[in-house]
Amino acid sequence: MALFNFRKRDDSSPATANGDLEAFLQSYSIEVMPRTAEKVEDFRELLPSGTRVYIAHIEGTPIEDMVATAKRIAGEGYKVMPHFPARIIKDKATLGDWIARYQGEAGVDQALLLAGGVAQPHGDFHSSMQLMETGLFDKAGFKRLHVAGHPEGNKDIDPKGGDALVMDALRWKQDFSNRSDAQMALATQFAFDAGPIIDWANRLTAEGITLPIHIGIAGPAKLQTLIKFAIACGVGPSLKVLQKRAMDVSKLLLPYEPTEVLGQLAAHKAANPDFNIQSVHFFPLGGIKTNATWAIENGGASAVPAAKAG
Predict the structure, then answer these.
(1) What pTM was computed for the model?
(2) Helix (H, G, I), strand (E, B) or coil at 81
(3) Which CATH number fits the domain that encloses residue 172?
C-alpha cells in the first residue's frame, strides 16, 4: 500500500505542460538529514529509482546515525552522497574512519565536500580543499566528488564582500578536478531569482571554470520558513524576491513554489544547450513529501516514484 496518496493524473497525458521544465528536472537530487529521513517510511514511495540523495551532516549528529541513514537509503535503491563538513572533522584519521564506515557499511562512493557551517574548526581542517588534499577520497576510489558553489557570494569566505576568494577557491577546485579520477561538480546554495544564477553560471564559464553545476533550489514551503532559512544561509540579492512576495497580502499566506525560477532556468537551458547547469538539487525546506509531490506534478515521467514506476 502506498505511503502517500498523490493527486491522481490521467496517465495518457503529459505530467506537465512545460516540456522545458520536465526536461530540466530529469535526474534531480534532494537533500535529507537523519532526523528527517526517519519520518519517511519508504523513499520508494516518493523518489524515482536512482535519485541522488544527499545526507546533510549537521554539527552534533553522530557519525553512526549518518552511516545508518546512508545504508538505509542506499538499500532502497538510491545513490547516497553524504556531506563531509571539514570544520567538524577532527583530523585525517577521523576522515579516514568516516570514509571506511560509509564504504564498508553503506557502499558509498560519492561525497559532498564543504567547509561546514560552524565558525570555529573542531580540528585540523577548515576547508573542503584540505579534505581533497589528503588524497583519501581518491585512494578509496570515490567515483564522484561534489563541492560547494555560491551564485550570490559567500560572506564566510569573502567577509568584506565581493567574491575574489570564492573565485580563487573555484579555480583551485577546477584544477584539482583535472588531477582527480573522480567526477566533480558544483552543488550550490539555493537562490530564488534566475537572473543572478544565469549571470553567475555564465561568468564561471568565461573564467574557464567548467565544473558542471547542480543548482540548489528551495522546494515548496511557507514563505516565512523560506525567509528564515534564506537569512540564516546568507542568500543575497534574490532574497528580494521573497521579500517582495511577502508584501503582497494576497500571496503572503500561500506556499512558495519554485515554479517561476525553475521555469526561467529551464527555458534558458532549452535555448542555450551549452549552459553549464546540469541538474537541479532540491533543499526540501517545506518537507520531503511536499517537495517530492511538486516534482512529480512538474517533472513528468522523470519524477515518478520508484514504487509507481515498478
Answers:
(1) 0.87
(2) strand
(3) 3.20.20.220
Domain residues for the domain of 282 are: 28-309
Residue 14 within a domain:
no
Q: Where are the alpha helices (DSSP H) in the chain?
A: 19-24, 34-37, 63-75, 92-106, 128-133, 136-139, 164-179, 194-206, 223-232, 239-246, 249-252, 259-271, 288-299, 306-309
* First-to-final CA distance of the chain: 14
The total of structural domains in the chain comes to: 1
Indicate whether 238 belongs to any domain.
Answer: yes
In a domain, 4, yes or no: no
Q: Checking DSSP bridges between strand 79-85 and strand 213-218, what pairing results, if any?
A: unpaired
CB count in 10 Å sphere of residue 291: 26
- Write out pLDDT tens, residues 227-275: 776 666 666 666 666 666 655 545 555 678 999 999 999 999 999 999 9
- Is the residue at 21 inside a domain? no
Residues 166-192 have pLDDT tens digits of 889 999 999 999 999 999 999 998 888
